[in-house]
Design brief:
Chains: A mainly alpha (299), B alpha/beta (183), C mainly alpha (629)
Shape of chain C: globular
Number of strands of chain A: 1
Largest sheet of chain C: 3 strands, antiparallel
Order of helices and strands of chain A: HHHEHHHHHHHHHH
Distance between the termini of chain A: 22 Å
Radius of gyration of chain C: 24 Å
Strand order of the largest sheet of chain C: 5-6-7
Radius of gyration of chain A: 19 Å
Helix content of chain A: over 70%
Number of domains of chain A: 1
Number of helices of chain A: 13
Strand content of chain A: under 5%
Structural class of chain C: mainly alpha
Oligomer: heterotrimer
Largest interface: A-C, 63 and 60 residues
Distance between the termini of chain C: 49 Å
Structural class of chain A: mainly alpha
Number of helices of chain C: 25
């Protein structure tokens, strides 16, 4: 694989120009939400084409954000607004820790804290739909974050360190070879993060309106959409950086996983929360546990 | 027209509003005065993302079926960025169908008040524009222009999806003007 | 001599204070409250002063009565006979009382055997009966600071309850006994103070003297008496095989690898009963019928930590015995996970906090079972933060209960607007236990870092962490939900202890690196002293061999995104609207999801306890057998 030379090249980036080790991560950080929004737009276009219609333009999420930020501000109480800030703030912190190559476990916990604030925002609004959405979101966190933590742990155990900078240093072969089952679990996590059926239980439009974000409008809903895009960007970056770091093969891998996710999303219907629970705690846990045990045994 | 059950909720319509009439056609398309600049760009961007709330206030359900047909793949309103959000807080365009019955009048006003400015209201179908076939029924509280300030009337029974799209187009032009005018 | 007096202050002050409070409360409630506050503040000063003095040793070998008998031993006999009398007195409870009677008799017989046959052969008596070393300092700090705050809180809480004189006497007696237990180097003294805490626990749980509280108190009594039996038999075995009654001498014999391991296994089981590790967890759940200051002090911050103290103390004995370490870690992990699972199904706030306490204690035992510097430090950190945070949560729940007369979560809607100070305290307490950047997170971080070397603990830590997020977040969501209510004022005697604890938690979380360096590392036993697994890098950052964690950036983010918007967000330019309920006005409030049909107590309690019982018997057998082979 041509990944070895590229990896050393990437790891040498602090020497490209002065202050490169700050400027390049900042550029990546600014690009992450853009990439996330773009992926969401492409997703809508591809889904529309699969359904034999034209669909919105690829830049649609940007237009949505522009519109949301120019609407009048409505609120029901002030705590819901505070939680919106906190959710975006900690998602942003996760992205910062990721581009600046901090500890993987700290990254995971900041992501979880951001999700917790989403749930608190859902509960703090009085609508019954946001209440149901909050509980469903909590169950989704329970299932998906468990899988995600196992994947992160497998990553660290494989590289014998949890510091991202050193983990990337030690990747000689793309991890998709050493951790294929974890990669499948990452696809499941990506599917849930993209809010695709069969597991989009919080955002169940026909059941509970908007789910956790029912009472958010205008600018505040825009903040949530922005952090959702950031989350997608973070997941894509993790999948690229660890599993297939090669620029050509990595992009192909991302495109293939994206198409797999979109296809599954367009050909299945939504399960119940019990279905998600059963799936992630049987199939999902089996995948990550087998991979973890294999990595431990063969290291 | 009060029938004993006095309804709560104040109607946002101004006094003395009259409905559509043959001599008073639906509003013409407005053109933006400025071209260029941040407001124009923002106006052009936001115009591409109008979110819709559809609410049926009691009728024969023919107009809602046509609206759903407009959203379906054949007419595909989503290519304009139009999404049917069921939530007034996230909606820009309120599509109202049916005559405003007694049970729905307060709900309609509540939903209208929960929408964020700028917003437009489109009355679809003859029943909505001026009571239609349900004129003189005991539980009709309409016509709608006495309850909500309507921007576009789309007459028909039921109007075809193409007509509905035409009406929504006019509403969007008005919405864009409100965006530019307000901000 | 002055060393001795300061050293004994944490024991003498509570005793004197308890007596005076008893007398004062008989006169008037205000006088009693004043005495309690006075002695609590004195205690909160005396404890840290003693810690600043460094390691203190006190010989205390001249307390003799009736000629040559050690006063503690005489009191011990009185205590055990008292237990037997108590068990007979409460025989109307039925079978549990008779079990307690049998256990009391067993203790009496063992102590008699010890005093007659074994004591004469002991070669190595304790050099200093009281040895306040850095490990004891941590427990002393928790006991005095948290205990002092709780007592101040209790003066207001018990304003209208009956029998405050006896209540405060027993609370002060408990604090004295707790301090005595962590000071003791003499194993028999440790046993005495241990059993005093058992007695105090019984009296305080039974404070209301209803049928329910008597039943629950008896359950607690016989379970902790069982632990006492394990303890005294273990002490007897140590005396037989090591000819010593001193903990220091016992530990300095190095890692035990022979038939003496039965003693260690017994001491570990005694610790399990005291710290409510499965299968001995039922008594802690029943103890929640006690008044809230009791739950805060005994059953979250101090008494249950006595078992942890025992395990921390005897850690050097099993450093070479891998199988035992693994079993200990699994016992802790099992408790951590399944107590969290059971907590999901609770709708009573105090029961949920009780299960959460058991869960955290299980995590501490898991960390101890790792038997490394990393695990030991993680255990100490979690111990510290859990004591402070859980006491804060229990106290807050007590205030809420006084106001809304209900402990159920479903009635706590709108608490953020009704009692904002208490809600913020609950937020800080819960975040301190589950989220970064606070202290309990550091433990989970350290343990996950430790998965390099101990992969077996991974499933427990992972599942337990995510399940605890569920029930904590559900509570936080409930208190920040609507409907908004009118704000009610809060008394100073509630606000000052809670605020003090909150400030302590935030500051020690921010400066956790320095705390680890200065206070906690000193408490490491000699075998771990130079492992260097964790080091502080800079004022705010901790680094291990495999990871890095810095508190300051996270606190800044928390401040910028949570604190500043909460304080300064003005909604004047925004329009307030109704919530979305299909256009209808919102009237109802909602009950929570507790999944009682799958996770309820009556469904999974028995299977879990049975599983854990089998596992602990296995632990004991392995402990004894494995040491033979």
């Amino acid at each position: 694989m041509g990944g070895v030379d590229l990896m050393t090249l990437i790891n040498d980036y602090p020497n490209w120009f002065p202050f490169a080790n700050i400027i390049i991560p900042v550029i990546v950080l600014i690009l992450l939400p853009f990439i996330g929004l773009l992926v969401l737009g492409i997703d809508r276009k591809v889904s529309a084409r699969m359904q034999n219609r034209i669909g919105p333009p690829v830049l649609q999420p940007f237009y949505d954000l522009a519109k949301l930020f120019s609407k009048q501000e409505l609120y029901t109480n002030t705590s819901m607004l505070v939680f919106a800030y906190a959710h975006l703030g900690f998602m942003f912190t996760t992205a910062i820790f990721l581009v600046f190559r901090q500890d993987i476990i700290v990254i995971f916990f900041t992501l979880t804290l951001s999700m917790i604030f989403l749930v608190l925002g859902a509960f703090s609004t009085p609508s019954p739909y946001s209440y149901l959405g909050g509980y469903r979101e909590l169950i989704k966190i329970l299932c998906i974050e468990t899988l995600f933590l196992f994947v992160m742990l497998t990553l660290g155990v494989n590289a014998k360190t949890f510091l991202l900078s050193e983990v990337i240093d030690k990747i000689n072969t793309p991890l998709i070879i050493r951790m294929p089952l974890s990669f499948v679990a990452m696809i499941i996590i990506f599917l849930v993060a993209m809010e695709k059926t069969p597991f989009n239980i919080p955002g169940a439009h026909s059941e509970i309106v908007q789910g956790p974000l029912t009472d958010y409008s205008g600018r505040w809903y825009g903040l949530f959409k922005l952090s959702h895009a950031l989350e997608i960007g973070i997941l894509l970056m993790i999948m690229y950086l660890f599993f297939v770091p090669n620029p050509i093969l990595g992009i192909i891998m991302l495109v293939v996983s994206f198409l797999v996710v979109v296809t599954i999303g367009n050909t299945t219907t939504r399960t119940t929360y019990k279905g998600l629970f059963k799936f992630s705690f049987t199939v999902g846990i089996a995948l990550v546990l087998i991979n973890l045990i294999a990595v431990v045994v063969f290291s | 027209m009060s029938n004993g059950n006095e309804m709560k909720g104040m109607s946002p319509t101004k006094e003395g509003t009259t409905g559509p009439s043959p001599g008073n056609p639906t509003l013409t398309v407005l053109k933006l005065k400025h071209k260029g600049g941040a407001k124009y760009v923002r106006g052009m961007a936001t115009l591409r993302s109008p979110w819709v709330l559809h609410f049926d206030t009691g009728g024969c359900n023919g107009c809602p079926i046509e609206i759903l047909a407009a959203l379906a793949p054949r007419y595909d309103l989503e290519r304009f960025g139009i999404v049917n959000k069921g939530n007034p807080k996230m909606a820009d365009v309120l599509l109202v169908t049916g005559t405003v019955t007694a049970g729905c009048k307060d709900v309609l006003i509540n939903l209208y008040n929960q929408m964020a400015e700028p917003k437009v209201v489109v009355a679809i179908g003859s029943c909505c524009c001026d009571k239609g076939v349900f004129d003189q029924c005991y539980n009709v509280r309409g016509p709608i222009y006495k309850i909500l300030p309507v921007d576009v009337y789309v007459p028909g029974c039921a109007p075809r999806p193409g007509t509905i799209i035409e009406g929504v187009k006019k509403a969007l032009a008005l919405w864009q003007a409100k965006l530019a005018g307000e901000a | 001599m002055s060393n001795d007096i300061l050293g004994l202050m944490p024991i003498i002050l509570p005793l004197v204070g308890g007596g005076l409070a008893y007398i004062a409360y008989l006169k008037s409630r205000n006088a009693g409250a004043a005495i309690v506050v006075l002695f609590s503040v004195a205690l909160m000063i005396a404890g840290p002063l003693l810690i600043l003095q460094g390691t203190t040793t006190m010989k205390m070998d001249n307390l003799k009565v009736f000629g040559d008998f050690d006063i503690i031993e005489v009191l011990d006999y009185i205590l055990i006979i008292g237990f037997i009398g108590l068990a007979i007195g409460i025989r109307k409870v039925g079978a549990p009382a008779y079990v307690a009677l049998i256990l009391g008799v067993a203790q009496l017989l063992t102590v008699l055997y010890y005093d007659t046959s074994l004591k004469g052969d002991i070669k190595y008596l304790p050099v200093n009966n009281f040895n306040v070393d850095p490990l004891a300092h941590i427990f002393l700090l928790i006991c005095t600071v948290v205990g002092g705050f709780i007592l101040i809180y209790a003066t207001k809480y018990m304003e209208k309850e009956k029998n405050p004189s006896r209540f405060f006497l027993v609370m002060f007696l408990f604090i004295a006994a707790m301090n005595g237990a962590v000071f003791s180097d003499n194993l028999m003294w440790l046993f005495f103070f241990w059993e005093i805490t058992t007695l105090c626990s019984f009296l305080l749980i039974n404070h209301d003297n209803t049928e329910l509280s008597l039943n629950n108190a008896t359950l607690a009594l016989w379970m902790t008496l069982l632990g006492g039996v394990f303890l005294i038999v273990g002490i007897a075995l140590i005396a037989i095989n090591y000819d010593t009654s001193s903990m220091v001498v016992f530990l300095s014999n190095g890692a035990l690898q022979d038939k003496l391991f039965a003693a260690v296994a017994l001491l570990a089981l005694a610790a399990f009963t005291k710290s409510a590790i499965y299968p001995f967890q039922k008594w802690l759940i029943g103890a929640m019928v006690a008044p809230t200051p009791v739950s805060a002090l005994l059953h979250s911050a101090t008494m249950v930590n006595l078992g942890i103290y025992m395990l921390l103390r005897i850690t050097p004995t099993w450093v070479n015995f891998d199988m035992f370490q693994v079993l200990l870690a699994i016992a802790g992990g099992f408790t951590f996970l399944f107590a969290a699972v059971q907590a999901v199904a609770q709708d009573d706030a105090k029961k949920m906090l009780a299960y959460s306490t058991i869960s955290n204690l299980g995590l501490i035992v898991l960390a101890i079972g790792l038997s490394s510097a990393l695990g030991y430090l993680a255990a100490l950190m979690l111990l510290f933060f859990h004591a402070f945070a859980k006491a804060m949560l229990f106290m807050s729940v007590g205030v809420v209960q006084k106001r809304i007369h209900s402990k159920s979560f479903d009635d706590m809607s709108g608490l953020l607007s009704r009692m904002p100070f208490i809600s913020i305290m609950i937020f800080i307490g819960v975040l301190a236990l589950m989220a970064l950047p606070f202290g309990a997170f550091v433990t989970k971080w350290l343990l996950l870092e430790g998965t390099m070397t101990y992969p077996v603990i991974v499933p427990f830590v992972v599942f337990g962490t995510t399940v605890s997020v569920f029930f904590y977040t559900q509570w936080l969501g409930r208190i920040s939900s609507e409907p908004a209510r009118k704000k009610v004022p809060i008394s100073m005697r509630y606000a000052v202890p809670l605020g003090g604890l909150a400030v302590a938690i935030v500051l020690s979380s921010l400066f956790i690196a320095q705390m680890a360096d200065s206070v906690l590392t000193k408490a490491l036993p000699q075998v771990f002293a130079n492992q260097g697994d964790i080091a502080s890098q800079g004022a705010y950052s901790l680094g291990t061999v495999t990871g890095f964690y810095s508190t300051l950036p996270l606190f800044l983010v928390l401040m910028m995104t949570l604190l500043i918007p909460a304080l300064f967000l003005r909604s004047r330019s925004m329009k307030k609207v109704d919530p979305y309920c299909c256009g209808k006005p919102m009237k109802q409030s909602f009950r929570g999801y507790y999944f009682k049909d799958i996770l309820g107590d009556n469904k999974i309690d028995l299977p879990l306890t049975a599983m854990a019982l089998v596992a602990s018997v296995f632990l004991f057998i392995v402990g004894v057998w494995g040491a033979w082979t």
